[in-house]
From TrEMBL:
Keywords: Chloroplast, Plastid, Ribonucleoprotein, Ribosomal protein. One of its GO terms (cellular component) is ribonucleoprotein complex. It comes from Myriophyllum spicatum. The gene is rpl33. This is Large ribosomal subunit protein bL33c. HAMAP family: Ribosomal_bL33.
């Protein structure tokens, strides 16, 4: 059977400040969260303020491609 187009899809949210400061030695990694979104309600990329354990503060996490 072919995979159907689900309304709710699993997405990955990635910290934007960790990605920009990739060469920064203070950051030991990239913070990522896994969540779900409704494709009909939010067709664009999702942005949420989440806590980043590598930056030790709340930062913007954006949806990335799998």
């Amino acid at each position: 059977m072919a995979k159907s187009k689900d309304v709710r899809v699993t997405i990955i949210l990635e910290c934007t400040s960790c990605v920009r400061n990739d060469l920064n030695k203070e950051s030991r990694g990239i913070s990522r969260y896994i969540t779900q979104k409704n494709r009909h309600n939010t067709p664009s990329r999702l942005e949420l303020r989440k806590f980043c354990p590598h930056c030790y503060k709340h930062t913007i996490h954006r949806e990335i491609k799998k």
